[in-house]
Amino acid sequence: MSHPEEKLAELGLKLPDVAKPVAAYVPAIRTGNLVYTSGQLPLRDGTLIATGKVGADVTAEVASECAQQCALNALAAVKAEIGDLANVTRVVKAVAFIASSTDFTGQPQVANGASELFGQVFGEIGQHARSAVGVPVLPLDAPVEVELIVEVA
Known about the structure:
By secondary structure, the protein is α+β, with helices and mostly antiparallel strands. 30% of the residues lie in helices and 26% in strands. The protein has a single domain, classed as CATH 3.30.1330.40. The chain contains 3 helices and 7 strands, in the order αββββαβαββ. Helix 2 packs across helix 3 (107-122).
């Protein structure tokens, strides 16, 4: 299997700098062989790529792109914690929070923006458990937030 960052390059993507926390927390923490990320927002070059509620202000397609950006930001936080994404042995769980209008029920499809990226980058070890949760509001009026748990060597 090729290196995870080579897979990202093949997809036309690259890891961003680790997003600076917007409150009192760290982007990722390792305990034993697990790395937990804090919730990652869809920040690209320091700016949210969309704001508002999915199903009202933000389309499901844009929200899925936001989920992918959250996933990239989570991977950047993991890499900063462990040094090399090649040390990831399993993507264990992803949790996607989707700020949704009251009638929007497509949270799983939005979360696929993150889940599909993990599969494309890590192959079989990128298959993971997941929750996709609709919420009324997220920090900075972000439409999506993703947190990640990975197992490392």
